[in-house]
Specification:
The protein contains 17 helices and six strands. It has a three-stranded mixed beta sheet, covered by helices on one side. Strands 4-5-6 form a three-stranded mixed beta sheet. Helix 14 links the parallel strand 2 and strand 3.
Length: 527
């Protein structure tokens, strides 16, 4: 054999990288497999190309939809269409003044609102707000601040103070002349500012200036007067002044201030946003001085209102957490012989508190620990939980026995006689309470049928003679009817029904001190 030929054959079988040839491979794909693979690859490429085209169409459709939606909302929510800046300024300036007919309209609206507040009639109060001209100077303040018009700002402030003086004076005279009115829900609702009142004033002020700036006027402004409720707080200030009830005086004044500020603020921002003509001055120094004064006025007005708003917000949050906590407390007592008979939430910036009165067995340590855990869960660690619970006479007797071991026979006798007298007095007091309870039960048996027939909106009722004290003049026994209304009644219907029920109850039991209370914690017993 020729070795050279063998070598040549071996070299021929090696792969030749230069010409790209490969050695023989038994697993090399067949022509049919190659054809299928190429067809699959072509189909995959076609699918990818179609998917890219579909994605491109979707993106273009989304861009078109977004552009159309933005154009629609821009057109629908546009504030610039239909604005008559000159007529708006002239109209607000015209409504600022309180002279002649405007002053008399204010007087009559004050009298109507005072009558409505004294009798607790919501419809009469709404009528007073419809004709009240108090919106004029408040919008004037916002307009003047937005256009750097210091003379108009001074004029608006002066007329607002005139309107406040007239309103408080007339309402105070009215409440001095008439007999002392009964405190009703309409008066109580105007004694304090709430988060809802601030929101209504803010949105109402925005609606007022937007409606007032239109070329074609609408009937929004009377609705704003109703929503923001400027007149009733001022009349409540007059009521507090006439009756020397300073909580009503300062609380209602506080509510009026909040409403006024949050009506003027949207006006200021709207005037700035719409680029109303700003007042120009020949002397730049004068212009800077006026802008500085207006800026100081805005700071003095807005900063306190911002602080007030923050406190109202904190109070609202606290009440929400406290209500959730009390619901958990009631739930924890559902399977025990202890009943929650009253609850009161007192918000104070430094020391807020929740006051609870219980009836039945004393609290157990595990239940107290559970309530502490609930306080932490609802972020009420800094809240003082004031619990008034029944006395544990077993513990007191044990203490008496311990003390008696240390006394002589004569001292023990004297000690027990003294304790016996104390217990007899307690028994007399309990007998009096039992008698009062029995009297209340008898009264409820007599009037229950009449109540259900006359007031079908009452779901459940309880009647008792409650002892009440103001910690200065002793205690008073007040006949009290606790009612739970059906959920179908709204707030307005419930107020009207409670007022009628109170009048009927006083006539029925011949006691003008009787009262009706809606007990929110009055729940059905679990079966």
């Amino acid at each position: 054999m020729n070795p050279t030929n063998n070598n040549d054959r071996d070299h021929a079988e090696e792969p030749n990288e230069e010409n790209g040839s490969t050695p023989f491979n038994e697993e090399e794909e067949t022509p049919e497999e190659k054809t299928r693979r190429e067809a699959d690859e072509a189909e995959e490429e076609a699918r990818k190309e179609e998917a890219d085209k579909a994605a491109g169409r979707s993106q273009r459709a989304f861009r078109v939809f977004t552009a159309n939606a933005l154009n629609f909302f821009r057109h629908t929510l546009s504030l610039k269409e239909g604005v008559d800046k000159k007529a708006t300024v002239e109209g607000i300036e015209r409504d600022v003044e309180f002279r002649g007919h405007a002053a008399w309209i204010l007087v009559f609206s004050v009298l109507i609102a005072s009558i409505g507040l004294s009798v607790g009639n919501t419809a009469v109060i709404i009528g007073a707000m419809l004709i009240s001209p108090l919106m004029g100077p408040i919008l004037g303040i916002g307009l003047a601040a937005g256009t750097n018009d210091l003379p108009m700002l001074k004029r608006s402030m002066a007329n607002l103070f005139i309107a406040i003086f007239i309103s408080v004076l007339i309402s105070a005279l009215y409440f001095l002349i008439i007999p002392m009115p009964e405190i009703n829900l309409e008066l109580q609702d105007r004694k304090q500012a709430t988060l809802l009142a601030i929101a209504i004033a803010l949105f109402g002020g925005a609606a007022g200036i937007i409606a007032g700036s239109r070329r074609y006027k609408s009937n929004v402004v009377p609705g704003v007067a109703i929503a923001t409720a400027l007149m009733p707080p001022l009349c409540t200030v007059g009521f507090g002044l006439a009756t020397l009830q300073w909580d009503y005086f300062f609380g209602a004044a506080y509510l009026f201030f909040i409403n006024s500020v949050f009506i003027a603020l949207p006006t200021y921002f709207y005037i700035r946003y719409m680029r109303f003509p700003v007042k120009k001055f020949i002397d730049p120094k004068v212009e800077r001085r006026i802008r500085w004064r207006i800026s100081i006025f805005l700071i003095i007005t807005v900063v306190p209102s911002g602080y007030i708003f923050y406190n109202v917000l904190q109070k609202s949050f606290f009440h929400g957490r406290a209500q959730s906590f009390l619901q958990e407390v009631e739930l924890s007592l559902s399977d025990r012989s202890t009943t929650l008979i009253s609850e009161r939430i007192v918000y104070d910036v430094d020391t807020p508190s929740i006051k609870i009165a219980l009836m039945g067995d004393p609290l157990t340590p595990d239940l107290r620990d559970h309530w502490k855990d609930l306080q932490q869960r609802y972020e009420l660690e800094d809240c003082n939980l004031d619990i008034r619970e029944p006395r544990d006479f077993g513990t007191e007797i044990a203490k008496l026995r311990e003390q008696s071991r240390e006394l002589s026979e004569g001292q023990v006798k004297e000690f027990y006689l003294r304790e016996l007298d104390d217990r007899n007095r307690e028994l007399d007091s309990l007998e009096q309470v039992l008698s009062t309870y029995q009297e209340g039960s008898q009264q409820l048996d007599e009037i229950a049928g009449e109540i259900k027939m006359l007031f079908p909106g009452i779901e459940r009722a309880a009647f008792a003679f409650l002892e009440e004290t103001d910690f200065t003049n002793g205690t008073d026994t007040i006949p009290t009817l606790l009612v739970k209304w059906t959920p179908e009644l709204d707030k307005r219907e419930r107020k009207e029904s409670e007022a009628k029920l109170t009048e009927w109850l006083r006539i029925r039991i011949r006691n003008q001190e009787a009262r009706v209370m809606h007990y929110a914690g009055y729940e059905d017993d679990e079966q």
